[in-house]
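hey so i finally got around to running the thing on that chain from the lab meeting. sorry it took forever, my laptop kept dying and i had to restart like 3 times. anyway pasting the input first so we r on the same page abt which one it is
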Amino acid sequence: MKVVVASTDEQENHIAELVEQLYTEIFPRFFPDDEIFELKKLKVLQPQASDQVYNGTLKDAFQIISSLQALIAVLDLINDCKDEKEYEEMFERNSQNLNEYGYFFPLSFSQFKHAESREGKFSQFIKPANHFMI
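ok and heres what got predicted. didnt touch it at all, straight out
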């Protein structure tokens, strides 16, 4: 018999927050809105029921959180990386890990590396600084 510890609600919420961070902070820096809409339509970073390996265990949740955090860190520093090969290997390893757990992530390192910078451009996906209407 094997005892498995279930993931906590906080971990599940943190996974959702990290996915949201990718959509609202990272993707708008690299892709125009129409491409982000397409990613949402393809259900990128949403668990796929057909090949879901994630069973809601503590270990699985930790692996997914770690992979999402690593992708965010790599993509935050993608233009400043000194050893591009090391960053690419880290990106690919964590991307593959997410796909193995059923979190569909079809994007490659080169798509981000060679994307035209959208820094400072308007996107409807970027979180507003406040929610007050003027």
